[in-house]
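Hi Y.,

Following your request, here is the sequence exactly as I used it, all 195 residues.
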Amino acid sequence: MMNYNKIILWGTSIILIVLGIYSFTTDSHYKWDFFFLIGLLWAVYLIKDKIKLHPFHFSLFALFLVMHNLGTFDTYSNNYFGMEYDLYVHGFFGIVSALMLYRTYNLVGPYKGYLKYLAIIALVLGFSAFHELFEYGGALTVGEGEGVLFVGAGDTDEWDTQKDMRNNLVGALIGLGLYVIFERINNKSNKKRKT
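Below is the corresponding structure, written out as tokens. Let me know if you'd prefer a different format.
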């Protein structure tokens, strides 16, 4: 049987390495992001069995990491379809995180019912807060710029942290809503097959 998660791991690693090399050759601040993103990718892969990681969710997570690292091409200072790129990245993070956590909690998690939804939202917001504090710490230690360790384009207004966390929350709610819809459709089709 083909190991899709391993294919996603190596394919995404190659993409991140290419983006990292480009960042180093252009002296982009995103060159430092490579180390954090590749570490995060591999960390999630290494705990894949514990969290019951589905290849679809892992591919979405890998896409999120690549989307973030596209900042090396100045995407965070652009608007697409009337919205900042930063909104898309944070919203997508919320969706992906909620999908991964929902599956994990369904299969091995201690939370059931509404407590499961609250735990997922709290964890996504916790990840979001950690990221914002990490970014803040980077800005204090290495200065303003771009990337995970830097405050830069997309982070220019005084409400950026709150907006980023709001976008993560909205993404998480969308992800949870998608999973609930998927489960209802799946349950209806299973009932029809049984009758």
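The radius of gyration is 18 Å.

Thanks again,
Q.
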